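Input set for joint prediction.
Command: fold jointly, output tokens.
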Amino acid sequence: MLIAIFCLSGLGLLASLGLGFVAKRFAVEVDPRVEAVERLLHGINCGACGYPSCSQFARAVVEQGVSAVGCVACGEDTAMAIAEVMGVEAVLAEKKVAVVLCKGGRGESATKFSYRGVEDCKAAVIVSGGDKACPYGCLGLGTCKRVCPFDAVVISENGLTVIDTERCTGCGICVKECPKGVIQLVPAGKEVSILCHSTEKGAEVRKKCEVGCIACETCVRVCPFDAIFMEGSLAVLDHERCRVCGLCIVRCPTHTIEGRDRVFPRVEIMADTCSGCGICSMICPVNAIEGEKKEVHQVSGERCVGCLLCIDRCPKEAIRIKAPADSTLGVASQ
Amino acid sequence: MDDRQFILSSSPHIHSGESTPRIMYSVGVALVPAMFMGVYLFGFRALWVMLLSVVAGMATEAGAQRMMGRKVTVSDGSAMVTGILLALNLPPPVPWWLVVVGSAIAIVIGKQIYGGLGYNPFNPALVARVILLISFPVQMTTWAKPSAALSRTVDVVTTATPLGAMKTHLLVKGTLEGFTMGELWNPFIGNIGGCIGETSVIALLIGAGFLLYRGYISWHIPLTFIGTVFIFSGIFWLINPNQHMNPVFHILTGGLMLGAFYMATDMVTSPVTYRGMMVFGAGCGAITVIIRLFGGYPEGVSYSILLMNAATPLIDRYMRPKTFGWRAVSPR
Amino acid sequence: MKRLYLFQGGVHPSGQKISQNAPIEELGAPDRVVVPLSQHIGAPCEATVAPGDRVKKGDRVGQATGFVSVNIHAPISGVVKSIGTFPHPVGRPLPAVEIESDGEDTWADTLKPREDYMDLSPETLKEIIQDMGIVGMGGAAFPTHVKLSPPKEKPIDTFIINGAECEPYLTADHRLMLEEPESIIAGARIAMRILGVTRGIIAIESNKPDAIEKMKELTEDILELGVVALKVRYPQGAEKQLIKTLLNREVPFLGGLPMDVGAVVQNVGTLSAIFKAVRFGIPLIERITTVTGSGVRAPKNLRVRIGTPIKVLIEACRGFTSEIGKVIMGGPMMGVSQHSLEAPVVKGTSGILFQPVAEVQAVVAQPCIRCGSCIRACPARLMPTVLGVFAQRDMFEEAERCDVVECIECGCCNYVCPAKIPLVQLLRYAKAEVLARRKAA
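tokens >
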């Protein structure tokens, strides 16, 4: 018994000595900042920065002075923290999110045939370009879901790809992988998108899909900020100009334009400051403000779409955002 | 939205009709002669062990798949084959609970934890057998004397396997002088001590012939396996016949036939190319002989197959076929 | 008897040559044709007509753009109705010329018959072949004049006439060999003259004994042509496998061509078309197409004008027997399933197979049990199951290292797979990805 204990202890001691020696003798010198940076990173090796792994990106940040903003997946906070480690000022990039430019799920869009084969968009396009009648439509077989390192993609029951904007970091991997090119990166916070990218003629689109852009140009006309323009037979939104008023959403006859679950504000006029100049009622694109000259004006809560144009223009600063109640966009568009 | 649309898929548009269940049930059919001989030699007790093992195996598979939220695929026959193979690898007097435990081990530890059929690195039945052998050495090495023509005696007359007897003889006497292997006919029909299904060489060969004919196994693994054992043990026998038994004795005993034709050829755990299979078979043979002649165990087939199972991915990697056109075959 | 060298792999699907005794039938000119501008591998044609133009049978309607490209011609006489995108056998709409028949079916007066064609120079012959729009009619539709133009440093010693027709169901080549063998032989002699080759082998699978007999009879006095009966095995008719079988030469991988091993292979249908083009000046405006499968009442071998929509062929074969599940252009092993009966017959359409719903293979992939059948069946000696896993996991570098681009998409692996894994689709996917990555790099 005693012999056994001694033997085993001795063996253990010997092994630990060996290990210790090797650790000291063959230690690799690493800049401690590399490790610090690496700890701050996500560590999921998504590759969106262009480096094969997070640790290689960390090394690039430390050794080659690559900007920490290169990590799209990490938020602002991380970029700041890394900048602090490096002792430089962080120049922040605008955060982006992915959005699927197709609203035609299995219920809304027509198919050409019934597909049997590998459940993956990139493999499915080999078979006659995918089963959807619309050559631009989202196939909903989830290549993006498979490649998303952040689990931000959900395939709805309707067979449509939906991106969880909370989880999406804007790394852009899905954009690259989608064989239909249906995913786009848009500035986060700009919640309005035209969910169709078919350049086919309006009549063609109408045949194939209930919710596609039919090039009626209504949105172009109603947009108070000239943020929508036509590219052939497709309405395209300029996110720089868009003020997220949501007017186009309400007016689009095919409900192609959507704002993602954002609570759109409504405005109200403070009776005590309003001078009754009438500027607001003139510029209101939806005629939601009424009132006699020199009298206190009123906002019709039903018509207001929350474009906030009036707030900017009111000389008396008498208009403010009403506390959000039930006026979510979903309600407005129905 | 359209009601009648054509079906589209990638080519080809026809299929040979081959299927996983068909392969599994064919293996089951091929094992029928061995099962029959098992019952004939060891009585209805053997039938009971086989039934219990198959039922327990299938129940475990269904239960495990349901618990893991996977599709239940007991009907594909793979659990049945595992159950039969395990039963054929158990000694006839084995207690009933050991059969159940073994079956459950085969399915859960041998297969399902790796992801189910097709993903297990080791032969499930052998995993179970080896775990049982290590955990319950007494029960797993109590052999019954085959009592031909279905004796109704309840008492089991214990005996030793030929390899076990040889090892004991060697240990006690220090030489093989005086040890005889008896009539060749005995291991051929199975009239020796051993596992339920491993003793009757002729029954195993009949089933193997069927599998070879159907193309579900190829000659590569069995032939190289048995051939290596024969040559390797033959060399040692020629060097010193007092210490080592002759090669015929080695290939006819100790479950070599069962292992070579049914266990080593398991598709999932053996290499996929012919060249790889030959390396695999030779490896199995060499390890078997090393264990039998120099190891503590009298028997080495199970361990050798398991060890080579572990080497299968490596063999596959290096035995990749040369792509068509890799070198002009006849230079002009 | 010539010695044969077997290629590795291959499968033995049931022949199903149900239309082999149906003589070639003229389908005639349909009321309307849609002639795609891209019917061959290589650059698509440019239309040379405008809507409203009157065209006669044999008039050029599309001009080749570049060396790897051929002209296309009007298959009927009539008026060009429009030039736009129309359904195409590849599955997506592509540019095509739509011609409406005037019912006259008159030949263009520009046709140039040549009695003395064997005196023409190889260059002139090649020009005629490109001009007349000849492409490989076995299915791949590779421009024929390109294959007949090996560079000087690659001498050709053997010309192989491919009459293997190893795909199940298809009998178009078989019927052609029985009914117009002289045109095939004459076409072969033209091709051999172009290549300057003195050894020609007519290779036919042994399930067509009548065709072998016929060819032997006709080539008895022709020293440079011999007939070889091949063992029945799919894909015996694949170019590389055929060369291996006959000459024991393997076309080198990484983009090697038959000419690298001194051989050129042409399909029998192509040779017949070459003869007609050179001798009579008739461009490639029709071909023999097998309409077959248990989905049609009367399986037939039809001489069809290029551009005839599939639905016209169905009427000629007395309609469907039951509800159709799959319409396959080509054979069952490599054909492309169609979603529209408006898709036209093109130069490479060797057959159209109609499968009733009940015959359509289900695609329910089970886990791979590593049986290795696919590896043994692969004529390219790849490991399809391993490549399939690479494709599923986006491991394209590994797939490239295992030569996925050498896959000939013959379908053998898929055919034998007991787990019914859609291996061909996975490999095609991996191939496409690897090629795209190479291009990007």
